[in-house]
Amino acid sequence: MARHIYSCPLRWSDMDAFGHVNNVVFLRYLEEARIDFMFRLAPGDGSPSFAGGSVVARHEIDYLRPLVHRHRPVTVESWVTKIGAASLTIAYEVKDPEQVYVRASTVVVPYNLAEERPRRISAEEKLFLQEYLAEEPAAV
């Protein structure tokens, strides 16, 4: 399984009064990594995959340790944990080599903006996503 790696800069405005990255800012970091993964790395030259839009159906975040401002970016690793007919789940770790700050997941629903409704995941999209799909744990 491959993981998408995104180098995310920290901004001075990301900090809260306590001197660490505000909890809501982590959602922006996840969004930046997800957009980079789904749109910039989407398959095919000129492919319409993922370009028609998507909506977030759910976020789940575990804050493990505070992240303080520094000039070096933080790494956001992303991978796919579930591919359904009309949704997918992306997992993330916001981290440095020596520690993880946040573990999170997002349920994303492909969306047809012109028709204003969810749509199914295309065969091309599924093929792309499967490269990042976490292997199922061994049955006990």
The CATH architecture would be: Roll
Please provide the count of β strands: 6
Shape field: elongated
**Compute the gyration radius: what is it?**
16 Å
The CATH homologous superfamily is named Hotdog Thioesterase
Could you state the order of secondary-structure elements as H and E? EHEEEEEH
The tally of domains stands at 1
Top-tier CATH class: Alpha Beta
The helix tally amounts to: 2
- The structural class is alpha+beta
Keywords: Hydrolase
Protein name: Thioesterase family protein
GO molecular function: hydrolase activity
InterPro entries: 4-hydroxybenzoyl-CoA_TE, HotDog_dom_sf
Task: Provide the fold topology.
Layout: E1 4-8, H1 23-40, E2 54-63, E3 74-83, E4 88-96, E5 99-112, E6 117-118, H2 123-130
Antiparallel strand pairs: 1-3, 2-5, 3-4, 4-5, 5-6
InterPro entries: 4-hydroxybenzoyl-CoA_TE, HotDog_dom_sf
Protein name: Thioesterase family protein
EC number: 3.1.2.-
Which features would summarize this protein structure in a list?
elongated; 6 strands; six-stranded antiparallel sheet; single chain; 140 residues; Thiol Ester Dehydrase, Chain A; alpha+beta; 36% strand
